[in-house]
Amino acid sequence: MSIVRMYHIPDDAPRPTHYREAWWDDDTSEFVVHHGKVGESGTTTVERMADSDEAEALLESFAVQNTADGYVDAHDIEHEPFTVSVKLKGSSPTTVEETNAEKFAIEYTALLAWRGIGAVEDWDAASDEGLFRFQVNAVHRNKAMKFAGEALKKTEFRVDRMKVERN
Questions:
Q1: Same domain, 60 and 85
Q2: Where is each WGR domain found (predicted)?
Q3: What gap in Å lies between CA 61 and CA 111, rounded to an integer?
């Protein structure tokens, strides 16, 4: 899957206010455009494409047009890292806890990505500390942190076991 993700930062703003992203999904032969205000679900349009060459050309023109509109590639935007920790019941994770951690990472990334905020970049079980750690990068840390509890609700983890910290 090829993806182009770009952000708009007005001159008077400390961080991005809007996002635009497009991707080509080889499996479904769909070209998807998703855009909106950072922190909100945004709008999605989907178009079926005949082949990947046509989609790649569209991705390239998408990037060129967004640059002309004042958008900047996501890799060139400062991201604000933070960590979400979830305490284990014991000293090492159970199979159920491992499954819930994976579910949390997927749900949290989906909540952040569909709002143009960021993603869970990595996670691990820190058995020596009795917890899972999820490393998150976001273009707007405070907005991203607010969605952690919502993602946790999709698991069997208790909210009182979660801690969100700035790095």
A1: no
A2: 27-75
A3: 27
